[in-house]
């Protein structure tokens, strides 16, 4: 059965259909280390049927699952792994019961999931990963999901089995984060050479950063076309998403970039024709330096997005930065920046500009750029748009509105941007909370909501486990929040989740707050995040 990529919402009722998709994933006999056969469960290999090794790791069970040729199913639980889940010779499907319920924890300096596919062989043409969490437990962890297709682009050799080879990845409802505060993945998702792929409803949180290693949430490169990234959340890395090389037809829709240095980089500097046909719409950029950085890109469409200048560093901030690189043969033309909202709320020093368009020199100019229907508000901008002398045929229309210093009531994007505050009591998943309260503030633009929650425990209680904070909105995908205990200065880390379904829907569950006795009087926890609302 082929996997339906048109209907991009895959619910639990369809999960069994999804995992059996692909000719290489048919029924097969499973053999344990002892040689005894063990049947698969409903067309998939349940790793718990094999069991953990004596040291508590699950690598042997994963090896048996890969050998079976079936989809690999991780029921709810935590699975320590010493090695990457890797296959090089057949398509791969990995799934669980949800990104918080089924968590794969990688103990050594490895990738998480590694897939090497083919554009010409239908037995090894696709990767599917969904409803699962991947966590780093080693400072040297590399890439959480590494998928690449190695055959050249057309003209291609004949297909090995005579069928049409539609190579793709479907990565959905996946959380990529860490198991301890000293460990991070260096990169979230690496996608090279494939096409027809979808990455959606994923959370990429707090990847590794150092002076010599800037973390990237999603990296798309190496050719391919028709790739869509939708409703993903990027938290705390240096670069949220990188699209580069001759990738054609990339769509970034309804994504949120929070606390990253650069939200999205569309880089065509290493390609003769530049990077072509990138569509960005409905996204929320709350970034430290640049929302969209686009050197040498052709046909960038930036429409209906929200850019918030909220930096604290002494740096120059840009919402959309379109430049031409020093490479002499690439193209830079036919782009548009339309119907976006740019809002300045920063307290840091340094200039802030919503838009910069710049060619390389007098002979290699940026050309045919449309800037139309945008709005610029909040604190006063240094300039609403910079278009330098090396840019020609720019249309900057009178419908771009500068409302510096005014209070926003309408974003100009067809959606209102209300702000709100709420106060609520706090309960506990186990035991009781006698006196604990929470308050929060949120700002909404379209379906993107940025918010902050503060929890105060006023008296000792018997509460244990997760703390429950009712939220004023429901989320479309499981949303992870991060923060810290603030009553002791720079306190220990705090994290929580807002489930999109189940018994705790529309509830912030603070699941990790690093106290030997939960709910001690005087504790103050503060968390923040960005969510896509239902």
Textual characterization of the structure:
The protein is mostly beta strands and 534 residues long. The protein contains three helices and 43 strands. A hairpin with a 2-residue loop joins strand 37 and strand 38 (448-457). The longest helix is centred in the N-terminal third of the chain and has 10 residues, at 59-68.
Report the portion of residues in β strands. Answer: over 45%
- SS content category: mainly beta
Report low-confidence residues grouped into runs of 5 or more: 1-41, 154-164, 402-417
Silhouette:
flat
What does the main sheet amount to?
32 strands, parallel
- The helical percent reads under 10%
| Helix count, DSSP H or I runs of 4 or more residues | 3
Q: Can you give the mean pLDDT? A: 74
Number of separate strands: 43
Number of domains: 3
Distance between the termini: 30 Å
User: Compute the gyration radius: what is it?
Assistant: 24 Å
Tag the structure with descriptive keywords.
3 domains; mainly beta; 3 helices; Immunoglobulin-like; flat
Summarize the structure.
With 534 residues, this protein is mainly β. It has three domains: 1-153 and 160-237, no CATH class; 253-416, no CATH class; 419-532, Immunoglobulin-like (Sandwich), CATH 2.60.40.
């Amino acid at each position: 059965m082929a996997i339906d990529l048109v209907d991009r919402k895959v619910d639990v009722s369809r999960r069994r259909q999804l995992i059996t998709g692909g000719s290489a994933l048919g029924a097969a006999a499973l053999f344990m280390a002892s040689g005894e056969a063990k049947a698969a469960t409903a067309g998939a290999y349940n790793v718990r049927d094999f069991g953990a090794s004596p040291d508590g790791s699950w690598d042997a069970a994963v090896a048996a699952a890969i050998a079976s040729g079936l989809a690999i199913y991780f029921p709810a639980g935590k699975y320590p792994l010493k090695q990457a889940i890797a296959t090089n010779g057949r398509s791969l499907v990995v799934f669980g019961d949800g990104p918080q319920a089924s968590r794969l924890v990688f103990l050594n300096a490895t990738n998480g999931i590694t897939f090497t596919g083919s554009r010409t062989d239908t037995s090894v043409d696709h990767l599917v990963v969904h409803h699962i969490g991947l966590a780093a437990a080693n400072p040297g962890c590399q890439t959480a999901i590494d998928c690449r297709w190695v055959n050249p682009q057309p003209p291609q050799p004949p297909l090995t089995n005579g069928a049409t080879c539609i190579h793709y990845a479907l990565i959905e409802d996946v959380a990529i984060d860490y198991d301890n505060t000293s460990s991070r993945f260096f990169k979230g998702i690496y996608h090279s050479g494939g096409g027809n792929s979808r990455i959606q409803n994923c959370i990429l949180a707090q990847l590794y950063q150092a002076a010599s290693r800037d973390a990237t949430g999603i990296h798309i490169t190496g050719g391919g076309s028709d790739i869509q990234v939708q409703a993903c959340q990027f938290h705390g890395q240096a670069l949220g998403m990188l699209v580069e090389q001759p990738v054609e037809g990339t769509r970034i829709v309804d994504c949120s970039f929070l606390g990253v240095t650069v939200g999205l980089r569309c880089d065509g500097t290493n390609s003769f024709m530049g990077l072509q046909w990138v569509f960005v719409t409905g996204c929320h950029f709350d970034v430290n330096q640049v929302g969209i950085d686009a050197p040498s890109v052709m046909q960038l469409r930036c429409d209906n997005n929200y850019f918030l200048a909220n930096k604290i560093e002494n740096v120059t901030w840009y919402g959309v930065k379109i430049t031409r690189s020093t490479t002499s043969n690439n193209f830079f033309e036919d782009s548009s920046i339309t119907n976006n909202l740019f809002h300045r709320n920063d307290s840091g020093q340094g200039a802030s500009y919503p838009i910069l368009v710049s060619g390389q020199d007098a002979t290699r100019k940026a050309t045919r750029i449309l800037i139309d229907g945008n709005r610029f508000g909040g604190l006063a901008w240094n300039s609403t748009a910079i278009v330098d002398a090396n840019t020609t045929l720019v249309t900057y229309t009178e419908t771009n509105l500068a409302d510096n210093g005014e209070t926003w009531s309408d974003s100009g994007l067809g959606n209102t941007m209300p702000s709100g505050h709420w106060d609520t009591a706090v309960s506990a998943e186990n035991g009781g909370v006698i006196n604990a309260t929470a308050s929060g503030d949120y700002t909404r633009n379209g379906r993107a909501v940025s918010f902050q929650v503060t929890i105060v425990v006023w008296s000792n209680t018997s509460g244990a486990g997760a703390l429950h904070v009712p939220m004023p909105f429901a989320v479309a995908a499981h949303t992870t929040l991060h923060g810290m205990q603030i009553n002791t200065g720079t306190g220990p880390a705090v994290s929580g989740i807002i489930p999109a379904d189940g018994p705790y829907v529309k509830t912030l569950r603070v699941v990790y707050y690093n106290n030997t006795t939960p709910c001690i009087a005087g504790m103050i926890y503060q968390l923040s995040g960005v969510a896509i609302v239902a």
